[in-house]
Amino acid sequence: MQWTRRQLLGSGLAAAAAWTMNGKARAGEDSPVRAAGSKIGLSLAAYSFRDYLPQGGKPGKFTLHDLCDMAAGWNLDAIEPTSYYFSSEDAAYIHSLKARAFRLGLDISGMPIRNNFCLPPGEARDAELQHVRTWVDHAVELGVPCIRIFAGQKNDPENDFAWMVDGMKASCDYAGSRGVFLGIENHGYLTDTAEALLRIVDAAGHEWLGVNLDTGNFRDRPYDHMAAVAHLALTVQIKIQVRTADGTGVEDADFERIAGILRNANYRGYAALEYEGEEDPMTAVPPLLETLRRTLKP
Fold first, then answer.
1. Do 93 and 87 contact (CB within 8 A), yes or no?
2. What backbone torsions phi and psi does residue 90 show, to the nearest 5 degrees?
3. For residues 112 and 110, what is the distance between their CA atoms, to the nearest angstrom?
4. What is the pTM of this model?
5. In the Cβ-directed half-sphere of 97, how many Cα atoms lie within 13 Å?
6. Of 69, 72, 90, 282, which alpha carbon lies 20 to 30 A from 44's?
């Protein structure tokens, strides 16, 4: 089904916590921003409409520009355009997307990309590092303050952590030189607990690195893990489900509890709905946004 522009517009953890408090990245320490109190804007992840957007050279039912129109129709503060769904990487296209968002009064809260730092020195690793640098450059052109990155995929467990940290440091050096933050997401291998994220951030030790907090990706005790890393969050993605406390299944996310965790951390930034439910996002997303709006706003 093809959507017309009119339709688009009308559809209008105890150990980790202790480590944190004893480590050098304590919540609110020497941070005038965090000390100012929580302020959370509402954003929308393009990934929520992955089946509608162009990808891999194939046209979609609508574009990221149309997603901006939809977001404005839903009175959002920002959008999160995932790199997979860009129709082009040409400057003219990127500038046109920036212009569309700006004219609609939308910020761009962040930009997720794919990468794999768990690779040994060589051509494949060099290509991954160049990929990140390229998207940092695109972020500068688009006016994106933060890029979501991954740790990588399992390759050599004895060396993956060191390779990943080295790749992250090099990428942060470049990103920082261009004024762009990198946010490591809790996304499976090497990153599925708060303790793992804290270890990465500590090992990298870079002022341009933080956390892209995904509420749905911790392997167990999700709210404990969220609370332990919320002070490091640069961006937040909220899913409608989380893992159960024992990690054996999933359950509906408690938006009120998530909002409380972010406020307690004095989080000042955007929370993007990342919808992964079975219902068509065109009908499921609008009421979810209204629920989040009521929950996140003070």
1. yes
2. -65, 150
3. 7
4. 0.90
5. 29
6. 90
HEC secondary structure over 217-273:
CCCCCHHHHHHHHHHHEEEEEECCEEECCCCCCEEECCHHHHHHHHHHCCCEEEEEE
Cα(285)–Cα(273) distance, rounded to whole angstroms?
8
Q: In 242-280, which positions are buried (b, 16+ CB within 10 angstroms) versus exposed (e)?
A: bbeeeeeeeeebebebbbebbbebbbbbbbbbbbeeeee
Q: Where are the domains of the chain?
A: 13-296
- Alpha carbon 225 to its chain's center: 16
- Maximum Cα–Cα distance for the chain, whole Å? 55
pLDDT at 271 exceeding the cut of 80: yes
Domain 13-296 superfamily per CATH: Divalent-metal-dependent TIM barrel enzymes (3.20.20.150)
Question: Which residues, in sequence order, are bridge partners of residue 133?
Answer: none
Taking the C-alpha atoms of residue 286 and residue 48, their distance in angstroms, rounded to an integer, is 11
The one-character DSSP state at 45 is: B
